[in-house]
Amino acid sequence: MLEMGEDTSTSNVGIISPYRGQVKFMRENDVNDLQLTVTYPQIHIQTIDAFQGQERDIIYISLVRSNTESEIGFLKDYRRMNVAMTRAKKMLVVIGDSATLGDDAFYKGFIDYCHEHEGYKSAWEFI
């Protein structure tokens, strides 16, 4: 596991989204504009299906569903989520709306696990 302040210049990073549209958006809007490549020189952006069979040191997963009905749609395919969540060798970061995701038993269990192991952070903590 990476420790805070550890040198990440040799770490390779994967950014995974279940949505092709979001992957396309991230690629077209040049990840260099996010200045991630200063910290992580090797960034690979793919859908979950395209990432199958690959690993990276650090994986970011974007679970972009957010709505008042708590409908998670495509995210209900837990096999794909299992593929995405098991691609990280050192660190996994999952970004999503816990209010929407938490109404689903699978994601609620994951969120609870993160809370129990002090791995949960709210976006409000960074504002």
Q: What layout of secondary structure does this protein have?
A:
Layout: E1 12-17, H1 20-28, H2 36-39, E2 42-47, H3 48-51, E3 56-63, H4 78-85, E4 88-96, H5 98-101, H6 105-116
Parallel strand pairs: 1-2, 1-3, 3-4
Describe this structure in words.
There is one protein chain. It contains 6 helices and 4 strands. With 127 residues, it is an alpha/beta fold. It has one domain (12-121): P-loop containing nucleotide triphosphate hydrolases (Rossmann fold, 3-Layer(aba) Sandwich), CATH 3.40.50.300. A 4-stranded parallel sheet has the order 2-1-3-4. The chain is globular and about 35 Å long.
Strand content: 15-25%
- What's the CATH C level? Alpha Beta
Largest sheet: 4 strands, parallel
Rg, nearest Å:
15 Å
Spatial strand sequence of the major β-sheet: 2-1-3-4
Number of domains: 1
Notable features of this structure?
single chain, 127 residues, alpha/beta, Rossmann fold, four-stranded parallel beta sheet, 6 helices, 4 strands
In short:
32% of the residues lie in helices and 23% in strands.
